[in-house]
Here is the input.
Amino acid sequence: MKILVCISKTPDTTAKIAFTEGSTKFDENGVQWIINPYDEWYALVKAIELKENDASTIIHLVTVGIADAEPIIRKALALGGDEAIRVNSNSNDSFYVAKQIAAIAKEGNYELIFTGKETIDYNSASIGSMLSALLDIPFVSLANKLDLNENTATVRREIEGGEETCEVNLPVVISCQKGMAEQRIPNMRGIMAARTKPLKVVEPIEAIARTSIKKFETPVAKSGVKLVDPANMDELVKLLKEEAKVI
Amino acid sequence: MVLVYIDQADQQIKKSSLEAMSYGAAIAKQLGCDVAALVLGTVQDNLADLGKHGAQKVYHLKNESLNSLDVKLHSTLIATAAKNVNATVVVFAHNINGKAIAPAVAVKLEAGIVTGASSLPNTENGFVVTKTVFSGKAFASIQIETAIKVIAINQNSFGLVDYDNVAIIEEINISVPAPSIKITKVDKIEGEIPLTEASLVVSGGRGLKGPEHWNILLDLAKALGASTACSRPVSDSDWRPHHEHVGQTGIQIAPNLYIAIGISGAIQHLAGVNRSKTIVVINKDPEAPFFKAADYGVIGDAFEVVPALTAAVLKSKAAN
Here is the structure.
């Protein structure tokens, strides 16, 4: 079994979100970077669990990013995975990124391709779906459980108003979310081993970005909280009905 | 032409798709072109009613095998239909189905895509769509550079617009390929409105001290007809099911009313709820950061305030 896990570098969930260069660029000043939580907690750890069940499993990690993504990919290797591939390019366009990963995927003949359900920075939730179209293979989104039986994966996924279990033949692209696996912390042995695991850097294939970011904005702050006396809930109901008009 | 994909769950058209319909109709008006809906599968709703939300025409591929989500199948058929009608803009709801399908459709149409759009495109100089980024902490204006554009609109961000149209229904005939997945089991959460579709949400945090105290929250939700949600520590402790977890790493919601009970308002939680139109915070700690993001605040003990609020809601309903 060969698994490809897509890894993205994102700002820490507590990072201050600010912009620079005339609000056209994310301000990286003082920002701590992490592995996108969905990629790490669910996609990567699930791949590691599958390898623990079947030692012949090979896990490759892929990221599209410039050299500053290396600490993140090393951290991912410390959790698990056999080798990593970094496509040496930076892009905010999902299609461009998906094209790069699809090229790696084609070359590696992976049976399972995992992504997180979305990244916590651009929230586009697009890479898995695009990969499936580029590779012409099935896509199962929002998976929270997966079992393998030879050439078939049984996947439980979230649907509108509930859950559904489906069977799909490999190869398949799966986007992972809560429930798929439990978060782990890298141990010292993993960290030491990660230093010598192969981290291959490849140049991007030719692809044209289809979108470009023109500017960023931060939301307008609320004008201030109106406090209501805890002994007067009739007043709160009145405000919600007549002022906010929401009930 | 603007083509709007109308998705369904249990053969019912989703509210988020009606919103996407209204959004697509507004784009068509802006561009001076026609707008149509595309429905796959069999639905129980009257499709001509899509006119009430802006559709002039409804293309319907009536085939039972399309009633549940199969991204490979759906994206292939939607891309084919979009090509057949020369669609230049294809609109999706940014809901579970739309998120899964739209990017694959964009690849097949060689289109640029913006998902999680929060307002109408600016078409004065190019085609720029604003979307939420950093889990609701910021917005990005994104230029789509391709001839065909795909947009997935955030739920509860545009609203429903009423029209007087009666849509003309045209059944289309595209051969449906074999499914790529086989559904073996469906578990529906009965009777609840999915959180992302709910217009009223009551949510609880660690301040409620344990799952045994959730009845006061459930009573309030019932009185209001609201859905229930919770913070991450609550779902991590299994006080409430995981699907109720809202926040940066849970579900992001944008209801008309969000009532937060005993939730301090960590930045990760705010990221999931700060697009709510009105936020009410009930917390005994006046320093809770959530008050800064709230419209209305009650500083007090949830165990007293919440039942009193429930009583006030019921009293107000009885008076009407």
Summary: The domain at 195-319 of chain B is CATH 3.40.50.1220 (Rossmann fold). The helical segments of chain B are 15-31, 71-84, 96-108, 215-224, 232-236, 267-273, 302-319. Chain B touches chain A through 100 residues (CB under 8 Å).
